[in-house]
UniProtKB/TrEMBL annotation:
<dbReference type="GO" id="GO:0005524">
    <property type="term" value="F:ATP binding"/>
</dbReference>
<feature type="coiled-coil region">
    <location>
        <begin position="587"/>
        <end position="614"/>
    </location>
</feature>
<keyword id="KW-0175">Coiled coil</keyword>
<dbReference type="InterPro" id="IPR017871">
    <property type="entry name" value="ABC_transporter-like_CS"/>
</dbReference>
<keyword id="KW-0067">ATP-binding</keyword>
<keyword id="KW-0547">Nucleotide-binding</keyword>
<dbReference type="GO" id="GO:0016887">
    <property type="term" value="F:ATP hydrolysis activity"/>
</dbReference>
<dbReference type="InterPro" id="IPR027417">
    <property type="entry name" value="P-loop_NTPase"/>
</dbReference>
<protein>
    <submittedName>
        <fullName>ATP-binding protein (AAA domain)</fullName>
    </submittedName>
</protein>
Length: 707
C-alpha cells in the first residue's frame, strides 16, 4: 500500500515533524489540543496549493521568532510532490461554501445532478434536435431579425395596449415635429432634420442661458440678438430633445425591419410616424395589431430556439409540441414577405427533420427525466436518513429552478415542511451547521474527486450519538469516503474507539489506521495506535501496577483503581493516608474519623502487597513519600507525563500557584474520567508538555530549598 511521508519544518509551533498518510485509507491522527493539528492541516493544504497555483501561502505559517528573517527558516513541506489536489474541511469551508442564502450548498446542481449520466443524457437529446441550433448558427439573419423584432416590441412598451410611457408613443404620439416643423422655426430645418438633430437641440437649448449676457448672439456673435431672441426661445417651447430621440429610435428600428414588413404595412408605419397631430384611434389599433403579430413571431422563435429537455420534459407527446412550434407565416400577414418566409421556411424544415425522430426524442427525454428524479431521490433520501437518525429535525429537497434551468438544494424544518428555510445559517445551531457542512463536504469532494481529503477536528463538538451517525455516513456506503485518502485530525478519542475497537468489522472498508501525535519542544512525532492499545482505565491500571518498577508509581495506579471502582475499603483508606503523608493512618468516612487499627493496617498492607506483587510496609513507604529527594528522584526518572503529574501532586500538596494550571493538575488530567476507553499514559503522552514544564519549574525550586 503506497503512502505519503510528509515532513514539516518551521510551521508555527512545529520546528520539525513527520506525518505518514497511507493512500486510499482513513488516517486518524489523535492529539491533545496545542499539538499542531490545524497547523499540519494548513501546512499540507498551503503547500499543495502553492505548488499547483504558484502562490506562497505557506509563508503565513512562519514561526513568529523567525519573522525578522526574510530568507531563512521559512516554512517547508516535503512529500506532497505527487499530491495533485486537496480538499480541507475546516471553519472556512463551513463559512464560505455551505448554507448560502438561496442554496444549502454552493453549486449543488453541479455536485448532485450534473454527473456524467446527466451530461450524456443531455448530449443525446441535443444531438436529436441539433438541426435547430445549426439553423440559427448557419443563418445569422434569423438572429438579427429576432433582435430587431424584439427591439420594436420593446418600443411599444409592456402594457397590454400602446403604453403612453412607451418609446413609440413618446416618439409619434403627439405628432412628428421633425417632418412637420413649425413655420416660425423653418429657418432651423437643416438642423432639425439632420441625423445629429438631438445633439444640436441640446446645444441650442443650453445656449439660451447666455442670451442676456451681451447684445451679441451667443451662437453667431452677430449684433442683432434682439431680433432673433424670440425665435431662439421658441425652439425649447416646441421641441423636447428626449422626445426627438425617441422618434429617431422608432424610425431607425422600423427602417431595419423594412424587408420583413409587407410594403403596405411598412408604408403605413412610416406614414403614422410622420403625422402632424399624433395618433388617431384607427392608427393605434393598427399598431397594436402589428405589436400582437410581432409578439407572436418572437414567442415562436424563442420557444424554437429553446427547444430541448427543459421545454419537453413535462409533455407526454413530443411530436405535438414540435408541430405546434411550426410557424404559419400566412397568419402573420404584416410580416408575410419573401425575406421573412425564407427564414421561417428554414426553421420549419428543421422542425420537420426533428419531427421524424420524435419517437426517439420522446424516449430520451423520458429517460433523462427518470434519471434526474432517481438521482434527486437517492441523494435526498441519503441526507434525510442521516438527519433523521442523527436526531436533527430538518430535511432537504433538491428543487428545480425553472427560470435558471438548474437545481438547488433547499432546507426545510420538519415542523413546517411546506416552506423552505431562507438564510438557514441564521436558524441552525453551531453543531447543526457543522453536521450539515460535513456531510455536504463529503458529496462535494466525491463529485470533484480530490486526491487528498483533510478533516480538521470535524466532530469534536457533537453528542455521542451524532458522532457515530456522522462517522458512519462519512465512511460507509456507496456515497462515502471509502477508497479515498483521508487524513482526519482530532482531539476526540471516541472516533478511534468506534472505528478501531468496537466497530472495526464495519469500518474495515476504509482501511483505517490511527496514530497519536506528540509535540515536544517543536518536534512533532507520531505513534501507532492499534486495537490492543485501546483499553479501559481498569485494564491500564492493572497493567501498570504489575509492570512498573517503582513502588510509589504502582501505588498511584492502585489508589486510582480503587477510586474508580468505588472501592473505599481498607486498601483505599491506607493508600490515601500515604498520599496525604500521615504518619498515623486514619480511617475517614462520612460517619467516622479515627485512627486505623493495627489489624486494619496489616490487612490492607497484605492486600496491597498481593496487588503490586512486591513487599509493602506502610512505615517504609511513609518515609519515602515524605522524602522530597526521593520524590524528586522519582519525578526525574519517570518518563511519562501522567506519572510526573501525580508525583508532583504528592510532592507539592499546595500545587501550582496559578489557578488555571492548578485546575489542570487536579482535575483535567484525571485520565480515567475522560473516556471509558483510553490510551495508556505510560506509552502515550496524553498530558501536555507545557503543564510538565510548569511542574519542572516548581521542582527546581523545591530542589534548591532542600539543598
Amino acid at each position: 500500500m503506497s503512502e505519503f511521508n510528509i515532513q514539516l519544518k518551521n510551521c508555527n509551533s512545529i520546528e520539525n515533524g513527520s506525518i505518514k498518510i497511507i493512500e486510499n485509507s482513513l488516517n486518524i491522527k489523535y492529539a491533545i489540543n496545542g499539538t499542531g493539528k490545524s497547523t499540519s492541516s494548513k501546512a499540507i493544504e498551503y503547500a499543495v496549493n502553492d505548488k499547483n497555483n504558484a502562490t506562497s501561502d505557506l509563508l503565513k505559517l512562519k514561526p513568529f521568532k523567525y519573522r525578522n528573517e526574510s530568507d531563512t527558516n521559512n516554512p517547508k513541506v516535503i512529500g506532497i510532490e505527487t499530491i495533485s489536489s486537496i480538499a480541507v474541511f475546516n471553519e472556512d469551508y463551513v463559512n464560505q461554501i455551505v448554507l448560502q442564502s438561496n442554496d444549502v450548498l454552493k453549486n449543488s446542481f453541479d455536485i448532485f445532478i450534473n454527473n456524467d449520466d446527466y451530461k450524456n443524457g443531455m448530449s443525446e437529446i441535443n444531438e436529436l434536435i441539433i438541426e435547430i441550433s445549426k439553423t440559427f448558427d448557419e443563418n445569422q439573419g434569423i438572429e438579427i431579425m429576432l433582435n430587431d423584432l424584439n427591439e420594436l416590441l420593446q418600443s411599444f412598451g409592456n402594457a397590454k395596449g400602446l403604453s403612453k410611457s412607451s418609446i413609440f408613443f413618446k416618439g409619434v404620439g403627439k405628432g412628428n415635429l421633425v417632418e412637420n416643423i413649425p413655420e416660425e422655426l423653418v429657418v432651423y430645418k437643416d438642423f432639425i432634420q439632420n441625423e445629429k438633430n438631438i445633439t444640436w437641440l441640446k446645444w441650442q437649448m443650453s445656449g439660451k442661458d447666455y442670451l442676456d449676457i451681451s447684445s451679441c448672439c451667443p451662437f453667431c456673435t452677430s449684433s442683432d440678438i434682439e431680433e432673433k431672441k424670440e425665435t431662439i426661445l421658441t425652439v425649447e417651447k416646441k421641441y423636447d430633445s428626449k422626445l426627438i430621440e425617441h422618434l429617431n429610435k422608432v424610425i431607425q428600428t422600423v427602417s431595419k425591419l423594412k424587408a420583413y414588413f409587407t410594403q403596405d404595412t411598412y408604408d403605413n408605419i412610416i406614414s403614422i410616424s410622420k403625422n402632424v397631430d399624433g395618433l388617431k384611434k384607427e392608427e393605434e389599433n393598427f399598431l397594436l395589431e402589428i405589436k400582437e403579430q410581432v409578439n407572436t413571431l418572437i414567442d415562436k422563435l424563442i420557444n424554437i430556439k429553446r427547444l430541448g429537455f427543459q421545454s419537453l420534459k413535462d409533455f407526454d407527446k413530443v411530436d405535438t409540441i414540435i408541430k405546434d412550434l411550426k410557424i404559419n407565416i400566412e397568419y402573420i400577414n404584416h410580416l408575410n414577405t419573401e425575406t421573412t418566409s425564407q427564414k421561417i421556411n428554414k426553421i420549419n424544415d428543421s422542425l420537420e427533420s426533428i419531427l421524424q425522430k420524435s419517437g426517439q426524442l420522446q424516449g430520451k427525454v423520458r429517460l433523462q427525466k427518470i434519471r434526474i428524479e432517481e438521482t434527486i431521490k437517492t441523494y435526498k433520501d441519503e441526507i434525510n436518513d442521516f438527519l433523521k437518525y442523527a436526531g436533527y429535525n430538518y430535511s432537504v429537497n433538491i428543487e428545480e429552478d425553472v427560470s435558471k434551468q438548474t437545481y438547488s438544494m433547499k432546507l426545510k424544518h420538519n415542523d413546517f415542511i411546506d416552506s423552505n428555510i431562507d438564510n438557514a445559517r441564521n436558524h441552525l445551531s453551531y453543531g447543526e451547521k457543522n453536521a450539515f457542512a460535513l456531510i455536504l463536504f463529503m458529496y462535494d469532494v466525491l463529485k470533484n474527486n480530490q486526491q487528498l481529503i483533510i478533516l480538521d477536528d470535524p466532530i469534536s463538538s457533537f453528542d455521542k450519538n451524532k458522532k457515530f451517525a456522522i462517522i458512519e455516513k462519512l465512511f460507509r456506503g456507496d456515497n462515502s469516503f471509502k477508497n479515498k485518502t483521508v487524513l482526519m485530525l482530532t482531539h476526540d478519542f471516541e472516533p478511534i474507539v468506534d472505528i478501531i475497537l468496537h466497530h472495526s468489522d464495519i469500518f474495515n472498508v476504509v482501511k483505517p489506521n490511527a496514530y497519536f501525535l506528540e509535540n515536544i519542544d517543536g518536534i512533532l512525532s507520531e505513534k501507532s495506535i492499534s486495537k490492543n492499545d485501546i483499553k479501559t482505565f481498569l485494564e491500564i491500571a492493572q497493567e501498570n501496577i504489575l509492570s512498573l518498577d517503582e513502588q510509589i508509581n504502582k501505588l498511584i495506579y492502585l489508589r486510582r483503581l480503587n477510586e474508580v471502582t468505588n472501592n473505599k475499603g481498607l486498601v483505599y483508606q491506607l493508600l490515601s493516608n500515604i498520599f496525604h503523608k500521615r504518619e498515623v493512618p486514619k480511617y475517614q468516612s462520612s460517619t467516622e474519623d479515627r485512627d486505623m487499627t493495627e489489624t486494619e493496617i496489616n490487612d490492607a498492607s497484605e492486600e496491597i502487597k498481593n496487588s503490586i506483587n512486591e513487599p509493602f510496609v506502610y512505615s517504609v513507604c511513609f518515609q519515602n513519600i515524605n522524602d522530597n529527594n526521593e520524590l524528586i528522584r522519582l519525578y526525574e526518572k519517570t518518563t511519562n507525563n501522567y506519572e510526573k503529574l501525580q508525583i508532583y501532586r504528592v510532592l507539592n500538596n499546595n500545587n501550582h500557584n496559578n489557578r488555571t494550571i492548578r485546575k489542570f493538575i487536579n482535575e483535567t488530567f484525571h485520565i480515567e474520567n475522560d473516556y471509558i476507553y483510553q490510551l495508556n499514559p505510560c506509552v502515550y503522552q496524553t498530558v501536555p508538555n507545557y503543564i510538565i514544564k510548569e511542574c519542572d519549574k516548581d521542582i527546581e525550586i523545591i530542589k534548591q530549598t532542600s539543598n
